Amino acid sequence: MTQAAPTAAPLSQRQKMEFPYKHSTGPTIGRFYAGLKEQKKIWGQRVAGQGVVVPPLGYSEIDASEAGEWVEVSDRGTLTAVALVHHPIADLHPSAKPFAFVLVKLDGADTALAHIVSDNLDTAKVGARVQAVWAADDKRSGTLRDIESFRVVG
Amino acid sequence: MNEPPKEGIKYVETTVRLPYHYVAGDYKALYLLALKEKRILGSKCDTTGKVFVPPIVASPESFAPCSQLVEVADRGVVTTFCVVNIPVIGRNLELPYVAASVALDGAAISIFALIQECKPQDVHMGMRVEAVWKPDGERQGDHEDIQYFRPTGEPDAPPETYINRL
């Protein structure tokens, strides 16, 4: 038995699912965030076999040994990966206008930090030099977005 | 200062937001529009004749198309249920309430529904229930057009009539 299946005019609905998270940072990331907020500095940790790790984890991903000393790294660095988002989804992505997800290897660090570039996207290429754009003193709250974005320099 | 502040940030609050644009498709659109008219539609498998509610385009059992929409009753039988004693964020129902699977007359599978107008402890497998619809003019064509199900007072359905429609 075959017959044309019934059809209907398109029907749709917009919905927004929200997951309000409050997560405990732990001692290591907690201090990393405090450095961003209070000192406007980016800190990593020296880890056996991995060099200077940013953001720090508190332990080695190679052998689980405890991380060593805290090391301040520059707020400038080099892009090691770029993913352009031409059509951001409002409320989901970190920027409402086109931006790029990037990995930044900060000067003095041996690992790359995930962040965004929000301006001059045509210059956001692997190898480009970037500089952190800090949130104003009264806006920094102790999150990774205390660095609003990175901008391409030189 | 050659290290970050001793006192770290303790918590980060982040709300993850997932904006959806849900498109119903033909069958679900017709199903929802029918709710506005107090009608519940299912789809009938071309091979087995089983009726699925809400309607789906193909049977997950026989893989055959379900090319016909059919109306099922707005009454049926409680096949399984749960008494809820713990509040859920975003839901304002008075506790305790009963969430149940209801196999509508004419349907091969059950739908999920609230059972009200009786004590939670009186709800049982095999209990006959009927839909309580929103009044005319207030139905929007969504699942809340059926406010809940309530006991009909009919004799219980024997287990063999619903055991395969849980």
Describe this structure in words.
The complex is a heterodimer of chains A (154) and B (166). Chain A has one helix at 26-39, and strands at 12-24, 42-47, 51-53, 70-73, 76-85, 99-106, 113-117, 129-134, 147-152. By secondary structure, chain A is mainly beta. In chain A, the strands form two sheets. Chain A has a five-stranded antiparallel beta sheet, with no helix packed on it. Chain A has a three-stranded antiparallel beta sheet with strand order 3-2-4. Chain B has 166 residues and is mainly β. Chain B is 7% helix and 37% strand. Chain B has one helix spanning 25-36, and strands at residues 11-23, 40-44, 51-52, 68-72, 75-84, 97-104, 110-115, 128-133, 146-151. In chain B, the strands form two sheets. Chain B has a five-stranded antiparallel beta sheet with strand order 7-6-5-8-9, with no helix packed on it. In chain B, strands 3-2-4 form a three-stranded antiparallel beta sheet, with helices on one face. In chain B, strand 2 and strand 3 (51-52) form a beta hairpin. The longest helix of chain B is centred in the first third of the chain and has 12 residues, at 25-36. Chain B is extended, with a radius of gyration of 21 Å. The termini of chain B are far apart. The interface between A and B is large, with 48 and 38 residues.
